[in-house]
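Mods, move this if it's the wrong board.
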Amino acid sequence: MHTEHHKWYSPAIGREMDIKIYGHAGKGILVFPAQGGRFFEFEDFKMIEAASWFINEGIVRFFTVDSVDNESWANETVHPSDRALRHNDYDSYILNEVVPFMRSITGYRKFFTTGCSMGGYHSGNFFFRHPDAFDGVISLSGLFSLNLFCGDFVDENIYFNSPLKFLPDLHDNWYLDQYRESHIIICCGQGAWEDEMKKDVSAMKDLLAFKNIPAWVDMWGYDVNHDWPWWRKQLPYFLGSLHQQSVI
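Not the wrong board. C-alpha cells:
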C-alpha cells in the first residue's frame, strides 16, 4: 500500500499539523479521528486494514488528519463560546489547507468524509456545512448536536456547527440541491455506549426525510456497541455498497 506522511505549520491552528495518505488513486476520503485522536488512529485501530482492498485497488484514497477536540468541544476549562471559536480555527484549517492539499494530490474537486464517534460528528458536520467541498459522508456512531459538550448553551457558532439545529431552518437551495446530489450514509449501533448517538441519528433520519434529502440511515443491532470492532465491520460494508453502485 502506498502511503505518504505530510506535516506543515498551520496558520489557522498555530502549530504543525500532520496528515497521512493511504493509497495511490481513487476517490479521496477525509478521515477525522475520534475525540482527541491523532492522524495515525485509523491505522492503529486497524480501520485502514479493514478498508485495504478498496485502497489497494485504487478505488479510494484516505487522508487522515489530527483533531483539536481537546482544545475545542472537549475543553471543559473554557466557556462553550470559546470552544466554538477554537473549532472555527479547525474549520479554517480543513477548508483552507487540507481540502486544497487533497485537490492538488487527487485532481478531484469534492471528497467524502468519514470518522467514528467524535470523528463521526466531524464527518457529518463538515459535510453539511461545506457541500462545495464534500459530496459524501460515512458517519459512524456520530453525534449531530453539541448538547453533550455545551449543554443548553447556544451561540451563533455552536448553532452553525450543530446539524440538528441549523438544518431545520435551512431553505437555501444552493445547499439543499447539493445535499440531494450527494451520498449520505449515517450508521449507529443500538448496543452499549450508543444511547446519545442513537438519539441524534434517529432525529437526523426524520429531519432528512422531511427535507427530502436522500440518505441511508442504518441502525445496526442491539449487540452493536460504540467500539472499533464494529466500526471495522461497518466501514468496508458501506464502501462495498458504494463501489457496487459505481459511486466510488
